[in-house]
Amino acid sequence: MFDYQDYQVYFAKCGYGLEEILARELTSLGAEDTQQNYFGVRFKADAAALYRANYKSRLASHILAPLINFDCHSDNYLYTTAMDIQWENIIRPGMTFAIQSHVTDSRITHSQYAALKLKDAIVDRLRTVHGERPNIDRKNPDVWLDLNIRENKAIISLDTSKGALHRRGYRRQSVEAPLQETLASAILTLGEWDMKQPLVDPMCGSGTFLSEALLMAQNAPSPAERFQGRAPFKFMPDWDEDIWEEVRNDTDSQMKQVPHRLITGSDINRKAVSAATTNLGWLSGSQSVRIKVADFRDLDGFKDSLIVVNPPFGDRLGERRDALKLYNEFGSFLKHKCQGSTALVLCGHPELRHALGLRPKRKKIVRNGGIECQLVQLEMY
Ligand SMILES: C[S@@+](CC[C@H](N)C(=O)[O-])C[C@H]1O[C@@H](n2cnc3c(N)ncnc32)[C@H](O)[C@@H]1O
Hints:
Oligomer: single chain
Strand content: 15-25%
Bound molecules: S-adenosylmethionine
CATH architecture of the largest domain: 3-Layer(aba) Sandwich
CATH superfamily of the largest domain: Vaccinia Virus protein VP39
């Protein structure tokens, strides 16, 4: 029988500062006893809530099922402890596996080395029990494992999502510095978009805000390919197909039609508009979204709308001055042409926020691809 610890307790990972909204989202999907933690949320769930969270969460990047946690001061102890886990109940003959690992502030300093030790323990145990060694498949394994060692405390978990949930499957074309899908969704959640107010991104790039807004307004599950035809968590020892079918049918039946032009976007760059059009094209109902080529300075403006935007940060040498000018012009556009609207602007540096020339109602630190950014909310009343 399966006897690993905390089987009903899960840990959903998320970006820095998004723990509170993730806890709320998980609760709405049936999770119980949520506890905000470092870069994630611990919660309790039955199988239905776990499957639903994987299928529908827009904010979680992975949902882990912790197998064991222990004090870990040496690679040898990691190996012997991992050897005691009944891997034969999880990785059955013929199955492949992969390990993602993260090590911070610990005696073991290299995450790849820690992953290697865990792999050795699994392979050695399974060779003894099954008489054959399992294979590693880093791209599409049957079982994804997660090893996290922080301040000499190790947690080994099953990744029930089998890879990053932010990979929704629609990003077929990209632009420079696209926004991570989970962060785009988090920004829409932080902005409390009611899905009735017109939403616009006048520097839409590859259309991440537009795509996430469409999914949100449709009340749609994740469009990720991982869900097409099969569930990622099918490898789990207590997998229940009937519960999954019920969760999926119920979730799919709650999808809504989105009014025409509720969501619109534009970009000065023709290639970006083409990428956004291609990406949205992978989502059902994308005909309702209008995207065009335009410099925001030539637009008439937006009244009573939610404007979400991630202008270029100007990180490369010589580009900062242009970025400051652009933020300044955008601030002026908001002030003079967008009365009655709210804007959520992602700023890569404090100077960019100041360049907007508007006093924010709210500010929040978020991280996009490792860069610390300020998200500001501006009210044009
Ligand atoms: C950081 S990218 C946006 C990325 C986007 N959020 C995504 O996820 O793909 C900034 C975008 O602003 C656009 N842009 C820069 N200046 C502009 C202007 N004056 N009017 C409209 N778009 C502009 C660029 O072409 C670029 O696509």
